[in-house]
Amino acid sequence: MIYEKLSPGLLLAWDDFQREGELALITHRRSLGILPPKSVIKPTKSVVFIYCEPDTNLSHLSQYGIEINQSFGGIRTAFLPLDRLEILAEETAIQRIKPSRKLKIKMDVAPQVMKLPSFVNRTGLTGKGVVIGIIDTGIDAKHPAFAGRILRIWDQTLPGPGVNEGLYGAEFTGEQLCISQDMEGHGTHVAGIAAGADAVYSGVAPEAELVIIKSDLQDAHIADAIRYVFRVAGELGRPAVVNLSVGGHADAHDGSDSLSQIINAESGVGKIVCCAAGNEGNDNIHGQANIPSGRSRGMRFNVPLNQMGMVWLNAWYQNSGQLEVSVRSPNDFVTPYQKIMTSGNPSQSYDLPDSQVELVTPDRDPSNGDYHFFVQIRGRGRSLVQGGIWQLRVRNTSTSDTRLDVWTLDDTLSVYFTGKSVKDAVKIGSPACASSAVTVAAYTTKVKYEDIDRQVREMGLELNTISEFSSEGPLRNNAQKPDIAAPGAMIVSALSSNFNSDRSMTINSQFVAMSGTSMAAPFVTGLIALLLQRDPNLDPTTVKELLRQNSSIPGKPTGTFDHKWGFGLINTDKL
């Protein structure tokens, strides 16, 4: 095995698989792109990103059951039988293998705040002739808000022959659109904000046409979906904007991850991507420490009692540093300090009396040149992870002071940093950290509404300011994100008939109220569709500059950046 080609997360899954077989992958499935076998005779597959030269021919790998989804490009996606990982790593043309990660899914008064009605009345723009791509949980194709405007649905979760961008899933058009259903409601709601047509709860671009991808939310498959939207729009000769109301934190938070790189590569003239900033503004998922040269520091994090089967920490620091890493359990058992491994297997396992700890400390990551280490904690045997206060211990052996950034990778947000370790910043992860993407924070336009039972529901948010749940920037490399803010709290939009919505959120049989940067992003996606209708040749740089020039933080001069607001709330008056 050429370990240098494997990212730490994939290496951990491989090591566990080698030691314990299929049972070890049960927990890894919720974070890594590991798919359960379809039958007892089928191997476990992992969804991966493969780095190679753009014109490399990898078709011969099919003889090993390795399915490459693209025939060209420096970053491709693939289905990999996990027991063939060593064969792939030994392939000389392959430079790097990274696992896919499963991302999380993140109109009445809101348009008034953006001065949208006056903008639409003045310009007559409706999104006509523009394609909006929604990569999400699907859409209710029967909802009247989208009648006659859904061009195609690629349902990645259903069996089928797939599309050019990946031979998996099923593509639907015309009367077959209703075969794909949105059981979670998120995608339908997002699509309604961007492009729904309704007399009361209209979307921003009500005449734009829709290309929908019901995704399994693997970021590799989201990358395939972006390529799909832009291809379909290109074949129709139309500009397109893609909405991504999804995100995660298993990346470097600097735009060097695989999905962000693909967004940058695929974006261009008439091809724009819009992303939600994230909803972790209130959550202590990020820790930060500055470690002086020759000194040690500890970062404390809390693990809940009797809840966690596995705990992961994702850590990054600049390439001028040299850190050794150790972990202390709540019972004061410690691992040895582990240094950077520049050759051989960088993963080392430690059996403590109360836990099993695995540390991965590889050489510099080739994507950004920085150091990355990964911590995995499990209980002894079949026990859950020991609850209580843990400590990540780091020792700086370099001649320069080093800043360390660490994120917990717990979907339930149950594991969190405590004390001096907490840093309320750098909580915008992939894909919102892509440099070409328009990254949108959430602004609160409404704090109460009346539900279907005529009950007034009030949310504990402050009106007319940035939403406290909206994730903060900047990026780890100090790049400015988010870009702008848009309405994202208690937004009323289309309700999927296949989604069992809580009555307290339901407005009527066709509309529901939701909150999140997931709702703010499609506001801007719809607005970009209007701008593309006016000028189909807009590129990401021009769009971002246009939006920034027409955004501001209340009480501050235009052009002021804030790590929570970005450049402020969008105002369409002068667009």
List the helices and strands and how they pair.
Layout: H1 8-20, H2 25-28, E1 34-35, E2 45-51, E3 67-68, E4 75-81, H3 85-90, E5 96-99, E6 104-105, H4 110-113, H5 116-123, E7 131-136, E8 150-155, E9 170-172, H6 186-195, E10 209-214, H7 219-236, E11 240-244, E12 246-247, H8 258-266, E13 271-276, E14 286-291, E15 296-303, E16 310-317, E17 323-328, E18 347-352, E19 355-360, E20 371-378, E21 388-396, E22 402-408, E23 416-417, E24 438-444, E25 448-450, E26 456-458, E27 465-466, E28 484-487, E29 491-494, E30 511-514, H9 517-534, H10 540-549, E31 551-552, E32 569-570
Parallel strand pairs: 7-10, 7-11, 8-10, 11-13, 13-24, 24-28
Antiparallel strand pairs: 1-2, 2-4, 2-5, 3-4, 6-12, 8-9, 14-22, 15-21, 15-23, 16-20, 16-22, 17-21, 18-19, 19-20, 24-27, 25-26, 29-30, 31-32
Keywords summarizing the entry:
575 residues, alpha+beta, Jelly Rolls, nine-stranded mixed beta sheet, six-stranded antiparallel beta sheet, 10 helices, globular
What can be said about this structure in brief?
The protein is of the alpha+beta class and 575 residues long. Strand 3 (67-68) and strand 4 (75-81) form a beta hairpin.
Tell me about this structure.
The protein is an alpha+beta fold and 575 residues long. It has three domains: 3-99, Alpha-Beta Plaits; 106-280 and 428-574, Peptidase S8/S53 domain (Rossmann fold, 3-Layer(aba) Sandwich); 286-421, Sandwich (Jelly Rolls). 17% of the residues lie in helices and 27% in strands. The chain contains ten helices and 32 strands. The strands form eight sheets. Strands 7, 8, 9, 10, 11, 13, 24, 27 and 28 form a nine-stranded mixed beta sheet that branches. Strands 14-22-16-20-19-18 form a six-stranded antiparallel beta sheet. Strands 1, 2, 3, 4 and 5 form a five-stranded antiparallel beta sheet that branches. A hairpin with a 2-residue loop joins strand 18 (347-352) and strand 19. The radius of gyration is 23 Å and the shape is globular. The mean pLDDT is 91.
